[in-house]
Design a protein that fits this description.
alpha+beta; five-stranded mixed sheet; Dipeptide-binding Protein, domain 3
Length: 646
């Protein structure tokens, strides 16, 4: 899957591209920093993977000649844990029923749809979950021309739809045509696909795609698009597709399917593992997609869903509320006896960043010294300790927990003296009768917009610290709609904001200088830097992943030095709650996975399931209890991650 800001759950990394850092943490397309802080909503981040890779840590490209043409392929080997068994049921919750079950088109960008897409549909290629190297999926081979403007793909002749029909080049063409149809009402998807011409069939099972402009994302966009069956969608306009498949599915080629009888509108949806998945015979398939049935039940209240998990009515639940994690779970007898497990799994899943965005377009926030001073007045460690049970780590990157993070960025600590020195250097030295700083007769007064009362305790702490330094902060609570519109219109001074993340970012959207002058763009702070623009240009044309990561690290340092945000904190692990009946890979999840990787990584262990059933009846403990923390993928976690891992 590609071209959208969500990701799919498959044993290979698949990615959406639409917004770069613009995956918002709110509803209706509006980013919501305060929702995350209030811990009312789960954060959906950018990448799902599956499998244990102790025997499959790399998939280096293999260059081959077929029929006189150069091709690339790879042999990733088994992507799953050899201990895995197939069968059983996993029951979890979703907070609401989506407006549509379609994977494409208007209103399709939902949490549930992203999961169904990744489990039921496949793309031409995917990316190795440890190295992010390209590996086969529906295509066995691919080729990128020397000028990076032409791609070729060779389909796997074994690939089949769930109705038994073969996957062909016509399916790719029909999918491309659908995504390019304006009546599908998917402008971001079309924008990505429009950078390439319509694929051309060049041989039996072979396609060629020519690019309109050079961009490494083009390969990901076309290779990562979930393919739909031409024998069901060919000839449909986008509008016809919207109506026909609003609450039903075309057949898929993936390991799961959704039977019509398993769609209970407004209540639940169940995915069933196919016994005839064409790829079960592939070398990469053992040990992945193990669970027989995965059921998602609608539970609209987060606390109620948590309580259902604690009672055993749900098998699995991601925990986002620190109090529940620290106090409520540990007080349960089921947890103390090893029946109900809480666990933190540390991966390299890229996290978004959040904080107080400074509008750098106007004084006094156009002065980096003022912005840095305010950041030094933001006592994050105290807030994390007093309000959040020490369950978070302060941010010092705009690409946190990712390969693009610059580990050399220096943490901005609370420091009243340094803040005062910076303000004085910026010309704010004199104080009025109320103790506030003044310059040329103007008091240093700033308005901070926020959209959730739950965060007021954090903001008032910041407000009090600023007062000590002579800065007057006016707090203004507004509706989410007003908050969003005010930022998009650039009519703010300081505003709370959060952004999501994907593995392959698009930094131009948030940090390109041209975007600073575009009303409604993601560059809400007005950040401009010739150095950053140069790095972004290099990044956009660099096809080598390691080189791109190095460029991101350089960009991270440049952005960080300008302090466009007073950064908040993040959760450096996946906090999960589950009943002790599952098997899982050694790392708990794969390297770039978030918690959704359990659906394709884990399995129901029959022996554990029987022991759990007996122990719940007798009250006996289950031993050994799995460790609280799993840090398999954290070779060298930053100190602040280690501190937060309690």
């Amino acid at each position: 899957m590609a071209c959208r800001t969500r990701s799919a759950i498959i044993p290979l990394v698949t990615l959406g591209l639409a917004g770069g850092l613009a995956l918002s943490l709110g509803c209706g397309g509006q980013p919501s920093r305060d929702n995350k802080r209030a811990e009312a909503e789960a954060v959906v981040s950018a990448s799902q993977t599956a499998g244990d890779f102790e025997t499959s840590k790399s998939a280096p490209p293999i260059e081959v000649q077929l029929d006189g043409q150069s091709w690339t392929t790879s042999q990733p080997g088994p992507l799953g844990d050899p201990r895995a068994v197939r069968g059983g049921t996993l029951k979890t919750s979703i907070p609401n029923w989506p407006a549509t079950l379609r994977i494409y088109g208007k209103a399709s960008n939902t949490f549930l749809n992203s999961i169904v897409e990744g489990m039921c549909y496949e793309s031409l290629c995917a990316f190795h979950p440890v190295t992010l190297e390209t590996i086969p999926q529906l295509a066995t081979h691919w080729h990128i021309s020397d000028d990076k403007m032409t791609f070729r793909f060779k389909l796997n002749p074994r690939a089949r739809w769930s109705d038994g029909q073969p996957v062909t080049t016509e399916d790719v063409l029909a999918t491309y045509d659908l995504l390019m149809d304006d009546t599908l009402i998917a402008p971001m998807t079309k924008q990505s696909m429009a950078k390439m011409e319509r694929p051309k069939v060049i041989g039996e099972g072979e396609l060629e795609v020519r690019c309109v402009e050079k961009d490494w994302r083009n390969f990901i966009a076309i290779a990562g698009t979930s393919i739909l069956p031409a024998h069901q969608i060919a000839g449909l306009t986008g509008g016809e597709f919207l109506k026909t498949y609003n609450f039903t599915y075309p057949v898929g080629s993936g390991p799961y399917l959704v039977r019509p009888k398993d769609v209970k509108k407004g209540e639940s949806i169940t995915l069933t593992r196919r016994n005839d998945w064409w790829a079960d015979g592939e070398e990469s398939s053992p040990g992945v997609y193990n669970i027989g049935r995965i059921r998602f039940v609608v539970v609209r209240d987060h606390r109620l869903a948590f309580e259902k998990a604690c009672k055993g009515e749900l098998d699995f639940y991601p925990v986002y509320t620190a109090k529940w994690w620290v106090e409520d779970i540990t007080s349960l007898e089921a947890n103390q006896k090893g029946h109900l497990i809480r666990q933190k799994i540390y991966t390299r899943n890229p996290e978004g960043f959040q904080g107080m965005a400074f509008n750098m377009r106007n004084p006094p926030l156009d002065d980096v010294r003022v912005r840095k001073a305010l950041a030094h007045l933001y006592d994050r460690r105290t807030m994390i300790r007093e309000f959040a049970y020490d369950e978070y780590a302060p941010l010092k990157s705009y690409f946190p927990n990712s390969d693009g993070e610059n580990r050399d960025n220096e943490m901005v600590e609370y420091d009243l003296a340094t803040a005062q020195q910076l303000l004085a250097a910026a010309g704010w030295q004199d104080r009025d009768g109320d103790g506030y700083l003044v310059k040329e007769g103007q008091r240093l007064t700033l308005t901070l917009l926020y959209r959730a009362q739950a965060f007021e305790k954090y903001l008032t702490t910041f407000q009090q610290a600023c007062k000590k330094a002579g800065v007057e902060i006016s707090l203004k609570l507004v509706t989410p709609e007003t908050h969003w519109k005010t930022m998009m219109d650039r009519k703010f001074q300081i505003a709370g904001m959060a952004w999501g993340a994907i593995i392959f970012p698009n930094p131009r959207a948030n940090w390109g200088s041209r975007m600073a002058d575009e009303v409604g763009s993601n560059n809400i702070t007005g950040f401009k830097s010739e150095k950053a623009d140069q790095i972004i240009r290099q990044y956009d044309e660099e096809f080598d992943l390691q080189q791109r990561n190095q460029l991101l690290q350089q960009l991270d340092a440049e952005i960080f030095a300008q302090h466009p945000y007073a950064q908040d904190w993040y959760i450096p692990s996946q906090r999960i709650l589950y009943w002790n009946k599952f098997g899982m890979p050694e790392g708990g999840l794969t390297k770039y996975a978030d918690w959704r990787g359990v659906f394709s990584t884990w399995w129901v262990d029959p022996a554990k399931e029987q022991k759990l059933k007996a122990a719940r009846q007798t009250g006996d403990p289950l031993t050994p209890i799995p460790p609280l923390e799993v840090k398999h993928w954290m070779d060298s976690p930053p100190p602040d991650v280690a501190e937060a891992g309690r």
